[in-house]
Amino acid sequence: MQIDTSMPVMVTGATGYVAGRLVERLLEEGLTVHAAVRDPDNPDKLKYLNALAERTPGEIRYFKADLLRPGSYADAMAGCSVVFHTASPFITSVKDPLKELVEPAQQGTRNVLETVNDTESVRRVVLTSSCAAIYGDNADLEDTAQGVFSEADWNTSSSLDHQAYSYSKTLAEREAWKIADAQQRWDLVTINPSLVVGPGINPNATSESFNILRQLGDGTARMGVPDIGMGVVDVREVAEAHVRAAFLPNARGRYILSGHDTSFPEIAQVLRHRFGKDYPLPKRTLPKPAVWLFGPVVNKTLTRKYVARNVNLPWRADNRRSREELGIHYRPLEESLFSFFEQVMR
């Protein structure tokens, strides 16, 4: 992989969980990173990125930008060869899905890519999408061609009222492809991770992944967990995939990033092997009828429709494109979970 370090690259949402590891890899390669953030004058928000810059050959420059303000990325993007658009909220419990999820995801993507259209130096955009844009519920697996989710699949089962986060990621990626297909100067590549785990550069990050691991270890789930199948991928593999998607000439289209088909009970079991004596990790798998009856009372995101379409159903995805075209090697599930849990529960 040949990386031209003569031109800077831009990263939106640079203080985020995935973005932090991505910035680290870019700096390690000696690139100049234009970090677009909401508050470039907040040293507490930038201290982890600054620490990376101090120990790597690359350089970081900060620019103020707002996802919902058209044109606010113009200064950060000026002269850049690649744009990494990672900024998008990953939260599942919201009061107003339209304002808190859909608008930042869809309008933010539109604002960034319209600026790309106006910036002649940009040759490629790498969008951090999600497997949530590929499927909405585990029950969707029944509608796939080969009984496994692939890059050919799109989420058609989510809405503002059901799986709003997944709906927002689907709308954002579709918006990106619509804008990309309407021009010919720059290429779009999307990275579609499953649930991202593994240690971040900021131990206090606010990604939903941190909340999930924390609830497994702090006693919140001591009574048991529902059997919900999911994919899991290490944040370091996701970052590496972004870099390769940007600089491998033949990278194209969508790439599922998912190292392991797993489930909540399996994740809890893996963690118990190492941490079971010190933390109240769940030991039981909750029966589906109980989750259906009491889930909505305990957790508003566990609606009865969600339970019916996800509990006791597996999740399977085809990661061959990421392995064969991007050259991604996935580390063992235990390695990712152990290091992540230690960071989250520290």
Automatic annotation (TrEMBL):
<dbReference type="InterPro" id="IPR036291">
    <property type="entry name" value="NAD(P)-bd_dom_sf"/>
</dbReference>
<dbReference type="Pfam" id="PF01370">
    <property type="entry name" value="Epimerase"/>
</dbReference>
<dbReference type="InterPro" id="IPR001509">
    <property type="entry name" value="Epimerase_deHydtase"/>
</dbReference>
<feature type="domain" description="NAD-dependent epimerase/dehydratase">
    <location>
        <begin position="9"/>
        <end position="246"/>
    </location>
</feature>
<dbReference type="InterPro" id="IPR050425">
    <property type="entry name" value="NAD(P)_dehydrat-like"/>
</dbReference>
<protein>
    <submittedName>
        <fullName>NAD-dependent epimerase/dehydratase</fullName>
    </submittedName>
</protein>
<keyword id="KW-0560">Oxidoreductase</keyword>
